[in-house]
Amino acid sequence: MAFPQTRMRRLRASAGLRGLVRETDLRAGQLVLPMFVTEAGAPAAQGGREPIATMPGVDRLSLSAAVAEAREAAALGVAAVMLFGLPAEKDEQGSSAWDPEGVVQLATRAIKQAVPELLVITDVCLCEYTSHGHCGVLSAGPGAPRVDNDASLELLAQTAVSHARAGADLVAPSDMMDGRVRAIREQLDEEGFSETPILAYSAKFASAFYGPFREAADSAPAFGDRRGYQMDPANGREAVREALLDVQEGADMVLVKPALAYGDLISAVKRATRLPVAAYNVSGEYAMVKAAAAAGYVDEQATVLEILTSLRRAGAETIITYHAKDAARWLAEQT
Fold this sequence. Notes:
Layout: H1 15-20, E1 31-38, H2 43-47, E2 49-51, E3 59-61, H3 63-75, E4 80-86, H4 103-114, E5 119-124, H5 149-166, E6 170-173, H6 180-190, E7 199-204, H7 211-217, H8 237-249, E8 253-257, H9 263-273, E9 277-281, H10 283-294, H11 300-314, E10 318-321, H12 324-334
Parallel strand pairs: 1-3, 1-4, 1-10, 4-5, 5-6, 7-8, 8-9, 9-10
Antiparallel strand pairs: 2-3
Helix pairs in contact: 3-4, 4-5, 5-6, 8-9
């Protein structure tokens, strides 16, 4: 029936009524906190924390500071941390990415020992470790350098295995090389880690929203860009195809990155794959909210919780966000 018999406002009249019919929930246990961990000898390791200018409230962390940050996240009910490593030295191959004593490996072991109940997800990529800043190794042939997809697969698989051996609960390849999920799954199984899940960055776009991250992780490409392997933001059907290919190759979860401008693709990937979907609320999205809140243009708490709820509504079971600790505190205050 139409108005006046039907009045949609009836179930909005009080907080109790609104809560009774709320379609989408947001909980701290759905959030993942990304952390930038530095190797001993790097600047942040001297004082424990080094603020990242473009990401207010986010620091580069020494190993001990990373453990403290993980403890705090766990105490707030955050589900997991995602580790990004900042090595003291880089080379053409990115060899410290799979070093058993590398920064992510050391941080994983330390966090799992200190906070065993907290999930540790590790970023599997070479961009933070290569001297050229690309996500794979470069071809040795004539002409301009390019990323060699197939030559990168073995190194990515080695990296994933080293993370699993260190105790990672999930490994998350973010490189966007074709076939890397299959290569990682096969290598994990061969090395006795058949129970380690893969969270695949299936639809990772060549986005303008990554700028602050590249400063934080010191991972900007030394030449060119990443459009040859990351996705064109204009392509939606291709994102679904990428996700389905990763499912065929053995992904246990799939991820869409960035998140805020890609809610349509979170929904499309969810419908197509029927797997758990993660959304990465990336550095540029975080920085924009922080800047607007600092200028008094928006209410930070309300804005952040609205954004995160929208990602849940779009279909994401898991949200990777630099707002995770604040959001967890705010949600606790509402209960």
